[in-house]
Amino acid sequence: MEVPTEEKLTVSRGEWVISERAIGQRVYQGARPRRAMQAESTGDIWVIVDHTGDEVEDIALELLGQARELADRLGLSVVAVILSDDVGGLPPLLGQYGADTVYLAESPLLGAYHPDAHTPLLADLIRREQPSIVLWGATDQGRDLAPRVAARLGTGLASNCSRVDLSENGLLVMTRPVYGGKASCNVVCPQARPQMATLQPGAVPAKRLDPSRQAQVIAVDVSLSAQSLRLRLEEVIKIPPSDLDVTEAEIIVAGGRGAGSAEGFHLVEQLAHLMGAAVAASRPAVDAGWASYERQVGLSGKTVAPRLYIACGISGVNHHVVGMRDSRAVVAIDRDPQAPIFQIADLKIVGDLHEVLPSLIERLRRLRQERGTAEDEEVLQTLANVPGARQVS
Ligand SMILES: Cc1cc2nc3c(=O)[nH]c(=O)nc-3n(C[C@H](O)[C@H](O)[C@H](O)COP(=O)(O)OP(=O)(O)OC[C@H]3O[C@@H](n4cnc5c(N)ncnc54)[C@H](O)[C@@H]3O)c2cc1C
C-alpha cells in the first residue's frame, strides 16, 4: 500500500489532533482498510468490562464512574459490555456503579480472552449500535484488544490515558503521557467514531453510585464456532504478584540506593512478597545489580500507577518520580527528613529502613496469621504505627 506523505500530527488551537489521515496511515499499513463510522454518531458511552470469572476488575468500575460523569454532561446513557462464558452476578454490580444498560455476550468460547473471538464480536456490536465513545482499561486485555477493534472500525485510539474530559464542543479529550512522562498531550478524534481510549488503572477513583440502582440487561447474539479460532488456550499460568510486571501491579514496594546492599534490598523483596506486591527499584538499585532492569521505575524505566507505592530508601529525584507520581497513595521510608520523596508522600516514615522494614514485616506477618489476609486499610494502619511514621494527608 502506498504510504501518504502528509504529516502525521497537526496542531490545532493548542491541542494535538491526530488527523484522520494519520490514523489511517498508522492503522492500515498492510491491513485491510474499512470505512470508518463518521462523527454524526450520537450513541451512548460504552465501557468494555475487564473481569476474571465473576470478579470485575477495579478498572472497569473506575471507567463506569468516568463514563457516568461524561454521559450526564452529554445527556447520553452508559452501556457496560461483558463478554464471558458465565457472568454470574455481574450485571447488578455494573448498574450500581453507573451503567444504564449491560450488553451481555455469553458463549463457552468466551471463557478466556481470545482475540479471534473478542475482536469480531465487539467490532460488529459497535458497528451496529454506534456508540460515540468506548472506554477500555489499559490492562493486558485492553491493550491487546482495543487497537484490534479500532483497526477494524477505522477509528483512532488514544492509549494509556491518564484522564479523559470533554472539549467545549463535546469531543472527548484524551490526555496521555509523552516523552517518558515529562509532558502530556491532549488527543481528540474529530471525525471517526467511536472515540476510543484506554485508561490507566487507578487514574480515576471508582464511585458506587447507588446500591439500589439497576441496569437493563440485553443479551447479545453470539455466533462463534470453535473452527474460526486460530489459537487454542492450553493453560493459564498464574504469576506470583512479586514477579508481576510493575506496570500491572496494584501494589508496588520499591527500593533505592538507601537499601545499601543486596541483603538490604532483600528486605524490600520480603515486604513485597508479604503484601502480594510487585518489587520495583530506582536506577542505582538496578545499576548495583540488586534488581533487574525490567523493575526500574522512572524516566529511563517504566511508568506505573499502582493503588499503593511504597518507596524505601529512594530520595525522590524527578527522574524517578516521573515514573510513579500517578500512584494513588505513596508511602515513603527514608532516614533523611528532607528527602524530596516526602513532598509527594501521603505517609512519611522517617527512619533507617534496616530497622523500619524488619519491624514492619514482623507486624504484617502477625496480622496475616491472625486474620488470614489484611485489607489495605489495615496495612496502612500498620505502616502508620511504625515508629517515625507521620501521616501527611
Ligand atoms: C537521563 C537520566 C535518566 C534517569 N532515569 C532514571 C530512572 O528511570 N529511574 C531512577 O530511579 N533514576 C533515574 N535516573 C537517576 C536519578 O537521577 C537519580 O540518581 C536516582 O533516581 C536516585 O536513586 P535513589 O533515590 O535510589 O538514590 P539516592 O538519590 O542516592 O537516594 C537514596 C535515599 O536513600 C536514603 N537512605 C540512605 N540510607 C538509608 C537507610 N539506611 N534507611 C533509609 N533511607 C536511607 C537517603 O537519605 C536518600 O534519600 C536517571 C538519571 C538520568 C541522568
Task: Describe what this molecule looks like in 3D.
By secondary structure, the protein is an alpha/beta fold. Helices cover 29% and strands 23% of the residues. A seven-stranded parallel β-sheet has the order 9-13-8-3-6-7-14, with helices on both faces. Strands 16-15-17-18-19-20 form a six-stranded mixed β-sheet. Strands 1-2-12-11-10 form a five-stranded mixed β-sheet. Strand 1 (9-12) and strand 2 (15-18) form a beta hairpin. The longest helix is centred in the C-terminal third of the chain and has 19 residues, at 353-371. It is globular, with a radius of gyration of 23 Å. The protein starts with 8 loop residues before the first strand and ends with a strand. Flavin-adenine dinucleotide binds at residues 256-258, 260, 282-285, 296, 298-301, 313-315, 317, 319-320, 323, 334-336, 339, 352-354. Flavin-adenine dinucleotide is lined by residues 256-258, 260, 282-285, 296, 298-301, 313-315, 317, 319-320, 323, 334-336, 339, 352-354.
Bound molecules: flavin-adenine dinucleotide
DSSP, total strands: 20
Biggest sheet: strands side by side, in what order? 9-13-8-3-6-7-14
The helix count comes to: 10
Rg from C-alpha positions? 23 Å
Helix/sheet category: alpha/beta
Averaging pLDDT over every residue, what do you get? 84
| Beta-strand content estimate | 15-25%
| Through-space gap between termini | 56 Å
Return residue spans where pLDDT drops below 50 for at least 5 consecutive residues: 1-34
